[in-house]
Amino acid sequence: DPQARALPLLFKRWATKKAGGSTDNGKDSKPKYLGLKKSGGEKVIPGNIIVRQRGTRFHPGDFVGMGRDRTIYALIEGTVRFEMNKKTQRKWIHVDPANPPPLHPLFLK
To answer: Can you name the CATH fold of 33-98?
Structure first.
């Protein structure tokens, strides 16, 4: 029957491919410039940033402040000093004053 043989030709499916979505490979975040900004023994003035960090890798010690984003900065003029507590493995940052206040006479003996 010629009509029965022609029927499958009417319902022929063609090879199709949907368009692919765009890739996210080209995106990148801007650099954050984290890390140590001053080394041990370096002179600092109030407001100088000593470390920019994510989380508290370094903890603020004497005469040092910590910002909301965990940035550690100097509160006074002086010299940066790093210290590590052997027991807790915690790293502390201090600023030793450039002009330390005079000692009380009781402590001079």
So the answer is: OB fold (Dihydrolipoamide Acetyltransferase, E2P) (2.40.50)
Domain boundaries, the chain: 33-98
| Secondary structure of the chain as H, E, C letters | CHHHHHHHHHCCCCCCCCCCCCCCCCCCCCCCCCEECCCCCCEECCCCEEEECCCCCEEECCCEEECCCCCEEECCCEEEEEEEECCCCEEEEEEEECCCCCCCHHHHC
Which residue ranges of the chain lie beneath pLDDT 70? Answer: 1-11
In this structure, what token pair is assigned to residue 73? 């900065």
pLDDT per residue as tens digits for the range 77-86? 999 999 999 9
- Tell me how far apart the alpha carbons of residues 95 and 47 are, in angstroms, rounded to a whole number: 12
pLDDT at 32: 96
* The amino acid at 30: K
